[in-house]
Amino acid sequence: MINALNVLNDAMSASSDLLGYKLIHETAEGVTAGMIVETEAYSHNDAASHTFRGQTKRNKVMFGPAGHAYVYFTYGMHHCFNIVTGLKGQGQGVLIRALEPLEGIGLMAKRRSFKDVPPTTYMRSLCSGPAKLVQAMGITKADNGRSILTGQLRIEPYATPAEIVQTTRIGIRKAADMPFRFYIRDNLFVSKP
DNA sequence: GCTGGGATCGCCT
DNA sequence: GGCGATCCCAGCG
Q: What is the four-CA torsion angle of A5, A16, A87, A56, rounded to 10 degrees?
């Protein structure tokens, strides 16, 4: 919608600019939506990025134009969701690490296999991690390469965060000390404060 | 055709 | 805080 492209010029700035954006997914099951509260930047010259050693069949979406979804499989059981940034051919993007659930809470809970328990017991764990939010939002490998500017899976401006924290990334070995993780301070739905 | 790494999660103590 | 689950894909040959 609108022109979200102008915040996707490069992974570093987009990682903070995307905080407060709303991620929406319309599926046959229903609509789910959440506000982006935590991200990580993966630039083309970053040893921790999938694109660091050049283009392959797996990562080729990241070398495409900005504004597309890069969905990949990891650890034998999880998928993660990135938004491609930068110029075509660069190979950079933003990993979406956590959402604050806004719409379709019941559907998220169903997809995350929380049943017969009150929402207070699961609200904070619905989307507080990259693989969790992919599951809750119903994002699959079929979404790899799709535009997230228009269509059933898309982002829209939503809120302006009061304060953004920049710190080191999580769960990586290479370039682990680089401060490329961003989150909204005091938000209850981040994966790790 | 085999090998091993990997941007995780949930359950156990 | 530690660990097991579990599988795609790249790289080598």
A: -120
